[in-house]
Backbone:
């Protein structure tokens, strides 16, 4: 193995949540008077923590989102997850190969611990991720594109950053991994390759990932 630790993003890499959550976010922001298309949401918020939504809305409009925005948004997302969420095609196969090869892995997500757990219970991925393998932007001061979350995950897993590889599907995540001094494999299933500038390598199907790790 080229790496001592594989760090997965969660949304869009392990669980196919980006279409659901970004459609809900765009609709909710529009409902609140901040017109946002699905494409706008993917461009501006995909891969980021919820504080990014607050920051950009205020920067652009001078208005604060309601105090209950996070709770209401997550309630809508979790309801959709329970009805529709599926694992990303091929993700379980990759995890099986890592376990069979004895390769350490974890996830580092901009989502909350609750969001991660809700999605994993629905998709069955909870069997692959105990609490010691899950890291959230809630655990650090700044979310992606800051490197803090990936550096925290590496430290907790006991691996030097230069021996880690991150699997990401968002520009913010690629920026964070590079800032952490880690290689990063960009997943292009939803994100055009040109938006993942700087990625160590790119792949469009989870079936290709295992070969990039050796």
Residues:
């Amino acid at each position: 193995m080229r790496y001592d630790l594989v760090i997965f993003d969660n949304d869009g890499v392990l669980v196919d949540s980006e279409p659901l959550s970004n459609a809900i976010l765009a609709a909710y922001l529009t409902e609140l008077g901040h017109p946002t298309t699905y494409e706008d949401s993917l461009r501006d918020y995909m891969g980021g923590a919820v504080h990014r939504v607050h920051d950009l809305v205020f920067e652009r409009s001078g208005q604060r989102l309601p105090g209950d925005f996070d709770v209401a948004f997550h309630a809508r997302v979790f309801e959709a997850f329970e009805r529709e969420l599926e694992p990303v095609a091929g993700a379980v196969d990759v995890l099986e190969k890592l376990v069979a090869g004895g390769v350490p892995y974890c996830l580092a997500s901009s989502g909350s611990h609750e969001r991660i757990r809700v999605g994993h219970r629905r998709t069955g991925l909870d069997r692959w991720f105990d609490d010691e393998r899950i890291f959230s932007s809630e655990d650090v001061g700044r979310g992606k594109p800051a490197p803090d979350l990936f550096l925290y995950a590496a430290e907790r897993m006991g691996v030097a950053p230069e021996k880690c590889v991150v699997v990401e599907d968002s520009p913010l995540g690629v920026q964070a991994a590079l800032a952490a001094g880690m290689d990063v494999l960009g997943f292009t299933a939803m994100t055009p390759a040109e938006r993942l500038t700087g990625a160590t390598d790119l792949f469009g199907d989870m079936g290709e990932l295992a070969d990039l790790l050796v």
